[in-house]
Every structure is written in C-alpha cells, then in structure tokens.
Amino acid sequence: MEAALKAIAAPRRRELLRLVLERELAVGEIASELEISGPAVSQHLVVLKEAGLVDERRNGTRHLYRARPQGLEELRAYLEAFWGDRLEALKREAEREERSMRDEHD
Rounded to whole angstroms, how far apart are CA atoms 86 and 78? Predict the structure, then answer.
C-alpha cells in the first residue's frame, strides 16, 4: 500500500493514471496528452506499475498501459477505511462534546 500511496503522491502520475483509466494508451499517446517527454512518461509508468496501479500489454512493438482495477480497488478500500475511521472518531468527539454541554446546562 505504501508504494501505491507514494505513486499517487505526484500530481503528474495522478494525471497519467486518470488518462489510462479511460482507455488503454501507448507511451507516445500519454506524452502527447500530458505534453511531457516519452522518457518522463516511462519513468512515471514504472512507478505506477511497481505499485500495482497499471498493467502493461504488448501489441507488436507497442507497449500499451491501462489502469489495473484490482490495484485501484485496494487503494480505494484502504483510503475509505482510513477516512471512515477518522469520521467515526470525529462523530464520537462531537457527541461527547454535545453531552458535556448538555450536562453543564442541566
């Protein structure tokens, strides 16, 4: 999970990931869309692939990339659990504060 979180920490990689969510793309197509060099795209793709967030498929000499649903689902589940825990803690604290204020007025 740490690799996935580090991978999406970079804004450019998040942009790239959004592109390959929609459709399978080659490095050159991604570079054109993001207006960055092919080598830069390749470096970002290595990080995303190692984090389990994209898959690579060869079609002749072309390397095509697409978001990996399983990796994204794992990341989503982790973030939702983290967020859910924080919301639950906030709710408990708010309820505790409300009870405390009610007790002061009674």
Answer: 13
Q: Which domain, by its residues, includes 8?
A: 2-105
Coil, strand or helix at 68: coil
Looking up residue 62, the CATH number of its domain turns out to be: 1.10.10.10
Return the closest-CA partner of residue 13 out of 85, 75, 94: 75
Q: Would you mind telling me the total number of residues written for the chain in this entry?
A: 106
17-74: per-residue pLDDT in tens? Answer: 999 998 999 999 999 999 999 999 999 999 999 999 999 999 999 999 999 988 888 8
DSSP string, 23-46: S-EEHHHHHHHHTS-HHHHHHHHH
Q: What is the pTM of this model?
A: 0.73
